[in-house]
Amino acid sequence: MNFDPxxxxxxxxxxxxxxxxxxxxxxxxxxxxxxxxxxxxxQLVGRVLRSPHAHAIIRKIDTSKAEKLxxxxxxxxxxxxxxxxxxxxxxxxxLDNCMARTKALxxxxxxxxxxxxxxxxxxxxxxxxxxxxEILPHVTDVDLAMEHRAPLINDAIFTExxxxxxxxxxxxxxxxxxxxxxxxxxxxHADFIVERSFKTEQTHQGYIEPHACVANVSSDGTADLWVCxxxxxxxxxxxxxxxxxxxxxxxxxxxxxxxxxGGKTHVxxxxxxxxxxxxAGRPVKLxxxxxxxxxxxxxxxxTSIDVKIGARKDGTITAAQATLRYSAGxxxxxxxxxxxxxxxxxxxxxxxxxxxxxxxxxRPKTAAYRAPSAPMAAFAVESAVDxxxxxxxxxxVDFRIKNxxxxxTRSSYGPVYGPIGIGxxxxxxxxxxxxxxxxxxxxxxxxxxxxxxxxxxxxxxxxNIGMDGSVSLAVGTVDVGGSRASLSLVAAEELxxxxxxxxxxxxxxxxxxxxxxxxxxxxxxxxxMATISAAxxxxxxxxxxxxxxxxxxxxxxxxxxxxxxxxxxxxxxxxKLSLKEIALQSGKTGGPIAGHSELVADGAGVSFATxxxxxxxxxxxxxxxxxxxxxxxxxxxxxxxTYVEGQYQGGAAQGIGWALNEEYIYGKDGRLxxxxxxxxxxxxxxxxxxxxxxxxxxxxxxxxxxxxxxxxTSIVPPLAAIANAVSNAAGVRMTHIPMSPPRIxxxxxxxxxx
Amino acid sequence: xxxxxxxxxxxxxxxxxxxxxxxxxxxxxxDRLGLTGAKEGxxxxxxxxxxxxxxxxxxxxxxxxxxEAEGRRIETIEGMAHGDQLHPLQQKFLEHAALQCGICxxxxxxxxxxxxxxxxxxxxxxxxxGLAGNLCRxxxxxxxxxxxxxxxxxxxxx
Lengths: 754, 158
Hints:
The complex is a heterodimer. Helices cover 29% and strands 24% of the residues of chain A.
């Protein structure tokens, strides 16, 4: 396919406007169907039994009493999900996480499941399952888990990435290192050095919709799965592999999704629901409770990070170094590695070194959470950057501008940058009225930068032109926040038709080729690229049909503003044919008109943001209030600016919750103490001010319209921006997230020497 | 266990159903009556996604028993629009993109409707506190507050 993805400057008609989303009316009338809103005839209710222990050997599970309870149609344990992973360690971990095989590895780990005629019977049945546990010592803290005497979570794990293979197993699964230059030499040239240690606690994505699915395994070997997911094609692959099915026999339909933020990129309940349905011979609906969502799904890593940065008197950073420890839950991940890659990505550095340690703990398996791993690294680095600016006596914005990465800079994680937005977001922040606004008593201002890679990936789109001239667009990236609207705008732009002539849907796994999931801020970036390509393919056919209708050469037909136009003097009397006019005749000119595209969307442009916030701290109680918040971020090109703003605001709000309040609290017994929205409090409407946004558009050279992903970067700067604001307001450097009132008060009192 | 017979009014229609004594009204609405507009985000009254109006009072339907609806008047999201005519709040939520994933939207709309019924001209702070019982994880609430403010403007003019 001769599709050229390079950016070409153009004047937009549809892109950049703000129409109502195509799925909007269903969502304001309660008609939109989410994961738990789907039902099938004869459907059973599935429920999961979970370990109350943080670490325990499962000696025996006796399900006989539960099986005898009237109304129970199936009971399963790990035996019903045999290991078919064929040496694929990552898939084995997914399988073990779905249903513990020999050991329960965290409070909330699934050990058995039932399907029954109703929820009450299912709940009763769970109580009748007898599990004989041998409780083992556990560890939930990332630093403690690294100690030599820490309880071993998996004795088959030997730290990867060391020069020599270790002789003893460890909870550290991997060491990874990035950087260039010589940091020791760099620190030797520094006039000022800041060295600090930071901690961040574990948070949950906090999507309001719990994981939910309906599984239907038929006796003919085919199956259907209705599920809220960020990636139904990936869920299909994983479920099919774990259940020993051919992928094409399993059709997965993504429901409307009630928030994901990375947390719905992993299967948990779906293979269990399919196994229950297979055993019971009936459809099974499995919906997690909120308690289960907190205990068993999500969360992000808890971290412990050391940062050292040195600079000359003139404000030039001479060396930067960080050691980052990220908890992964009980299975290996790549969270510390990502943190180590992103930590210094905003800066132009001659000497930089980051080392990441991936650490197993008895907590739920870490899942991606919006720009996963980047916010914690940014918190540590941007806090130290602020402190260093203060020591040198230079304005923190000017200090960052002086050291900001530019086009041509070799990034701290390796690649050389193309055109990027870090400098422009900093300049915009510097000139923003927010920076000049007066602060009141006990108020402090903070700012910080953030970076995210953005991903592209495998993408497939079908664009079908109906006989009436209306256009349906079938995409395979799940719409998590308005992408059907933005993709419709892109198709309208390319075809030259009105937005109202289009309808975009998310197709199921049997109706469209494979798509990677909606993660890495790729939804609009990659599917818009495929949509442009599909539309151009459709235009080629439209031109051919027009040529046929006019009986002229196709090379004499061009496509302009939604019409075929015959070019050249000899065709001066032909007028033009609209898309609709061509479509109406399609039955006579060669049949249906469609455009398809299958591509790997390479070249997702990296993304940068700068945030500013004002915080008021009550020195008597340590409580905080967000007074003002501003997000400046590069969108490349904002396809639907309102939804771009929404991504900026939403990421900032999640970051505010993370910075000030949210955390997983474990008891000494290794059990999660706050598995509910009452005790794990996310920001509510009265906690927040309006969140101002400024969209910058520095075109991504690798996308026809210049689009960059916008979904994730907005959560990267808030932890640091707020920490800097609180530190300025309270007069003491905050090093532990969340900055809950007790932590702030303790810091203030320690500073006063109380 | 024998079911309890309940006779009630939902969105102006007379409705009868049988429910278990311990069955939340939310489960009755969703599982027995097919009214899935109210969502279960927590089941403990913390998220507001299941908000309904019960005899002019905003409640979390997960905290009300199905049996308690006997002889009462229930308003759900399914009854908010009049046929094709969206309620101004619904219209303004669309125009302002006050929803991203949309799972919290029915609860917010019901809560906002209840708020404006009691306080037709709220300040921003009153809107923020009036909607503080509803959790949204996508929007940061900015566009929700603006949509309600704009709906107030339209409804005052009507």
